[in-house]
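quick one, 120 residues, struct below
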Amino acid sequence: MPKITPFLWFNDKAEDAANFYASIFRNSKVLSVTRYGKAGPGPAGTVMVCNFQIEGQEFAALNGGPRFKFTEAISLVVNCDSQKEVDDMWTKLSAGGAPGHDPLRIGTAARARGLVPGKV
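---
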């Protein structure tokens, strides 16, 4: 697994997008498809995340539902080996954020996912 993976957000077209990109670029393929279970939050059996590769670079496409529609923006997923590494990255990435954004007030789940407010 690579250290940093670009993460593309879609409403409900993550698998279609991964298949589309894999069909266009050489040395590309869909690596895995993860579906929602009964617990959701999406309908059971629908695609949650689709991992794919283009010329050796891995990408993840997420169906965020209508709440998180597709944009031209991306997120970067940083794979960490320990909570200490997550905490160290969090401290560095959240330093100097926008006024009024206290990264320590963001929930543990957001912190674990590396949601850093107020960064340009």
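Helices lie at 14-24, 83-94, 108-113.
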